[in-house]
Predict the structure.
Amino acid sequence: MIQNEPKQVLKKYGSSFYWASQFLGKTLSQKVARLYKFCRYVDNLADSNNPNRELLLNNIKDHLVNKDEKNQPEVVKEFLDLVSECSIPVHAAEELMEGMLSDQGSVRIADEKELLRYCHAVAGTVGVMVQSILNCSERQSVYFAVDLGVAMQLTNIARDVLEDAQIGRRYIPSTWLDNEPERIAQKNLSDKEAISNATAKLFSLAEKYYESASKGIYYIPMRSRIAIAIALKLYRQIGVKLVQNGTQWWKGRTIVSNKKKMLLSIISLNCIVPKKVPLHEKKLHKYFQGLSGANEL
């Protein structure tokens, strides 16, 4: 692995995360970038046109479970090296792979429970792994890390309603909106308001998890706290901006400008002063029982 390659991947695909990672320092930012490289690899594979993608994803998962070095893909070897260095719970990565595999069939999310469990699989698990890299020692820290991942994934889903519909996926629960992806992709005038309302509901749900995650910032070691506070602010801003613009999902992705990123980074400094933190709200994890990082009821 070329030393700077993970950071190049992070910069190319995750501009907001790359921006925030600069506040972690050289060592931690490199480790976070290595984790991102693995996550981006499997995500790109899951979304690719490769006819063998499901087989390849299952192969990666099998190697994570069995840790068999024979014919081990390089991306798995690099990730397992990171697991060993940072004591990352590998079962979180296994759950991540389950989430990627769930995208390989017809995606029609049924209800809020299925939505949140999907968000946990593909992003809450990443929060679990990041907090290990950041050496978070407080037991409660992992609960809030899951919440930040879930909030960010809900934001992704709301931001990408049109993009996902165009590839046959609908993550908005049927209980909120029962339109088929093909119909959403047509951007019919008669459907716009209903889809906008459902998209706004995604952001409303995300806000509950952002609010929780913002409280958990204080469980993160001071050296890393500002980076996570910035990442939270930048991602949260995507939803804020989209809602302020009338949740016009049919216009495609909402982007946060560099000028706004700078302003939000400065504002984030207010979030790093230590203070008493309330206990995590267990009800936020009512659908996550038995999953990595879950706050058991």
